Structure formats: C-alpha cells, structure tokens
Known about the structure:
single chain; 97 residues; 0% strand
Amino acid sequence: xxxxxxxxxxxxxxxxxxxxxxxxxxxxxxxxxxxxxxxxxxxxxxxxxxxxxxxxxxxxxxxxxxxxxxxxxxxxxxxxxxxxxxxxxxxxxxxxx
Length: 97
C-alpha cells in the first residue's frame, strides 16, 4: 500500500479522534451553562449521547453525582490516539508501508 494513502488514513483517524475529544469537552461545558433548547446544544447532545450510552452502563455503578462517561470517553480517545501514533511510528521505522 502506498505510504501517502496510509499516512492519509492515519491523519483521518487522528482528526476523527480529535473531533470526538472536542465534542466531549463541548458537551461538558454546555451541560453546565448551555440552554437545552438551543440547536447547537441539541446537536452536540445528539452526537455525544450515543457515544456515552454504552459507557454509562459501566460507569453508572460508580456512586456519586458525577457522570463519568465523558471522562471515560476522553481517556479512551487519548489511549486510541496514543496507539495510533505508536502504530504509525512502528510502521515507519520498519518500513511496513
């Protein structure tokens, strides 16, 4: 496979992960100060809630008033980004393209 295509795929994956991270941070902010009837707030919720739903099944057992799903998603995104960067670096060093 051509190196440009592989680099492009890695760039798209990293961009997608960054986008998810920004949306999660935005959802945290609008949950504190946002107007639920605002269309932008509703759009952010409509994108992030399907991401949170499976994680909430695991985090709802944690006692307390906090919603741990956004935090878990941020940790997961950071982990996936690190794995992608490591995979890309290893493929470049080994000439695996």
